[in-house]
Amino acid sequence: MKCYLIRNCIRFLSTGQHILKVCIVGSGPAGFFAAQQILKKLDNVRIDILEKLPVPFGLARFGIAPDHPEVKNVTNRFHRIATNPHVQFLGNVNVGTDVTVDQLRDFYHAVLLTYGAPEDQLLNIPGENLNNMISGRRFIGWYNGLPSDKDLDINLDVEEVIVIGQGNVAMDITRILLTSVDKLKNTDITSFALERLSCSKVQKVSMVGRRGPLQAAFTIKELRELLKLEKCKKVWRPQDFTGVRDIVPTLSRPRKRLMELMLKSLEEPENDDIFFKFREVNLIFLRSPVEFHGYNELQSVRFAMNYLRGDKIEDQIAEATGEFETIPCGLALRSIGFRTIQIDSSIPFDTSKGRVVNTDGKVDGNLYSAGWAATGPVGVLLQTMTNAFQVANLVCKELASSTENKMGFDGVYNILNAKGIQIVSYEDWQKIDRVEQERGKKLGKKREKIVDIAEMLEIAKGAI
Ligand code: FAD
Ligand code: NAP
């Protein structure tokens, strides 16, 4: 057992207080924000954060785009939480496989599931398995160094790309494909992604949504960034905006500002100098993919043309007109949302809604859930934080009456030790972190992420 664990145990024993033991499953933003709030409310608490990977921070490390370093800085806050003496990070522990949720419920006074949404929504249409029809989630994992996506086979030797979906994830994908590598080379993007992007032949990216501009899921900051891309022509279809101008004054402020920006860009005269603009982004609305065409390799996507039905603008749904449009492409990325999974059969799970069954974070008994595992895969950091704080408040309220003694970490340790599982402590992660920063420095980058789990574990052991 690590010496710092022993230090902590001694500290707790010497106070003679009844210690409340909380286990958090998943070290993404929801897990850390919940831990922060529990620390604020309770003195006599010990929090163990169990994480499947040897490294912490979830999508703050593996999702947020490399050209958004200011957003990634949220990990500085998580670092302060992880180094609080009441908190222990236990990496390389796959809950549901290495230790069950029922075992955790026995060992701890409260178990909080914050394991995110690690899978993809599927379109379930013909051709979805063709080569170069890629999961957008995996593309993000690839450029961000997620170990399971390091070998993603993506061919950027193509000129035309289609991104399906119009959320902020689709925006990130589109922007990374069209950003000059000069702007990415000093970030923490993986070197292999940078190298592949530097040879990319991509000239045109079409980002296609099934509904209209008034329902676009992306937000203004992300659209502004896209419109500012250098040497990139922005193309809209004026027919997608029929009747939209009249509705804009009636919209809520954020949606109104977003629409004003779209309309401004639509009306802006484009500089058509082909020497100045060598890339192009097309924003296409009212099209639902119905088939991916090609033999082995993708050649085009067939879309059903849609109209909108329904009274309330934001709730309008796309209906097929019966007409179709085929758009050629050599690569398509599906970005229609993530999906939560049931990591352990004892977790009550709603497959249709795609989330852990919960009421305001309460699952049942001493089991709780927060973040994307509980809400489904929606919401930026701020919303995830608000949700995690609310659920943490509930946990603290319900824990107040608890008097029973629980084994806590000792119970988990016995199980993992018997299985020969190497626990990665926060100090171990800091060794990995140092190596990544050193490697990055040599390349003139913020960090060079290690993408191989075996190598992470060797560094954690001190073997490298
Ligand atoms: P996650 O971040 O997914 O964390 C879940 C954690 O649980 C992970 O570490 C995972 O490894 C772990 N886990 C999974 N299974 C197990 C298991 N069986 N055992 C143990 N651990 C497990 N928000 C912004 O505000 N700004 C942005 O710029 C931004 N960019 C984003 C970019 C992308 C591509 C995505 C997908 C989201 C982005 N977001 C952004 C949203 C933000 O990332 C989420 O709000 C937030 O990460 C959700 O936190 P979470 O803890 O619920 O899930
Ligand atoms: P999202 O915002 O829910 O967008 C999903 C997109 O996919 C929507 O355009 C949706 O269209 C479309 N879609 C869903 N099902 C479809 C189908 N069957 N066929 C065609 N299109 C379909 O999800 P996301 O982009 O994955 O983002 C997840 C969350 O992370 C969001 O809250 C987002 O804001 C956040 N995030 C934030 C940032 C940032 O702040 N920079 C970056 C990335 C992600 P409909 O609207 O018609 O359903």
**Helicity range of the residues?**
25-40%
The CATH homologous superfamily of the largest domain corresponds to NAD(P)-binding Rossmann-like Domain
Number of domains: 2
CATH topology of the largest domain: Rossmann fold
Envelope shape: globular
Report the major sheet: 6 strands, mixed
Computed Rg:
24 Å
Description:
With 464 residues, the chain is of the alpha/beta class. It folds into two domains: 20-118 and 339-461, Rossmann fold (3-Layer(aba) Sandwich), CATH 3.40.50; 122-336, FAD/NAD(P)-binding domain (3-Layer(bba) Sandwich), CATH 3.50.50. Helix content is 36%, strand content 20%. It contains 18 helices and 19 strands. The chain has helices spanning 3-15, 29-41, 59-62, 69-72, 74-82, 101-107, 136-144, 168-178, 181-184, 191-198, 220-227, 244-247, 253-267, 372-375, 381-399, 409-419, 426-442, 453-461; strands at 20-25, 45-50, 87-90, 110-113, 119-120, 133-135, 160-164, 204-208, 232-236, 279-284, 287-294, 298-309, 317-328, 331-334, 338-339, 349-350, 355-356, 362-364, 367-369. The strands form five sheets. A six-stranded mixed β-sheet has the order 3-2-1-4-19-18, with helices on both faces. It has a six-stranded parallel β-sheet with strand order 6-14-7-8-10-9. Helix 8 runs parallel beside helix 11 (220-227) and helix 11 runs parallel beside helix 13 (253-267). The longest helix has 19 residues, at 381-399. The protein is globular and about 75 Å long. The protein starts with a helix and ends with a helix. 42% of the residues are buried. Mean pLDDT is 94; it is low at 6-14.
